[in-house]
C-alpha cells in the first residue's frame, strides 16, 4: 500500500474502482457490489493501513463484528484482482 493514504482517500479510491458512490460504503447495504467494496475497504484499512477494527466500524457505522467478517471476505478480492496495484494515486 502506498504511504500517505488516509481512510478518506481510501474510501474514494475503492468507490471509484468499484464504480459506486463513496457514501454507499457508509451504509449497511447488502447489495453485492457495495458489500464487496466495503469488504475490500475493511481489509485494506485493517491489514494494510493498520487502523483498528473498532475505528473502521465507527467510521463506517457498522459493528466491529461486521468489520471482522468483512476483513476476511475482502482479502480474496484484493489478492485475486491485485487491487492494491489497481487503486490509482491521487
Please characterize this protein's 3D structure:
The protein is an all-alpha fold and 90 residues long. It has a single domain (7-82), classed as DnaA protein, C-terminal DNA-binding domain (Chromosomal Replication Initiator Protein Dnaa, Chain: A), CATH 1.10.1750.10. The protein has helices at 7-18, 32-48, 53-60, 64-81, 83-86. Helix 1 runs antiparallel to helix 2 (32-48). The chain is globular and about 30 Å long. The two termini are 13 Å apart.
Write the layout of secondary structure elements.
Blueprint (H helix, E strand, L loop, with lengths): L6 H12 L13 H17 L4 H8 L3 H18 L1 H4 L4
Proportion of residues in β-strands = under 5%
Overall CATH class = Mainly Alpha
The shape is globular
> Low-confidence parts lasting 5 or more residues at pLDDT below 50?
none
Number of strands: 0
In CATH terms, what is the architecture? Orthogonal Bundle
Largest sheet: none
Kindly identify the CATH topology.
Chromosomal Replication Initiator Protein Dnaa, Chain: A
Q: What's the name of the CATH homologous superfamily?
A: DnaA protein, C-terminal DNA-binding domain
What share of the residues lie within helices?
55-70%
Overall mean confidence score, pLDDT: 88
Structural class: mainly alpha
Number of separate domains: 1
Instruction: Please tell me how large the radius of gyration is.
Output: 11 Å
Separation of termini?
A: 13 Å
Query: What is the H-and-E element order?
Result: HHHHH
| DSSP helical segment count | 5
In short, what is this structure?
The protein is an all-alpha fold and 90 residues long.
Amino acid at each position: 500500500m502506498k504511504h500517505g493514504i488516509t481512510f478518506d482517500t481510501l474510501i474514494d479510491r475503492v468507490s471509484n474502482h468499484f464504480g459506486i458512490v463513496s457514501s454507499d460504503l457508509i451504509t449497511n447495504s447488502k447489495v453485492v457490489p457495495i458489500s464487496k467494496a466495503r469488504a475490500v475497504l475493511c481489509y485494506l484499512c485493517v491489514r494494510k493501513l493498520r487502523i483498528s477494527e473498532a475505528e473502521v466500524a465507527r467510521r463506517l457505522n457498522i459493528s466491529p463484528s461486521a468489520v471482522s467478517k468483512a476483513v476476511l471476505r475482502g482479502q480474496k478480492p484484493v489478492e485475486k484482482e491485485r487491487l492494491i496495484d489497481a487503486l490509482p494515486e491521487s
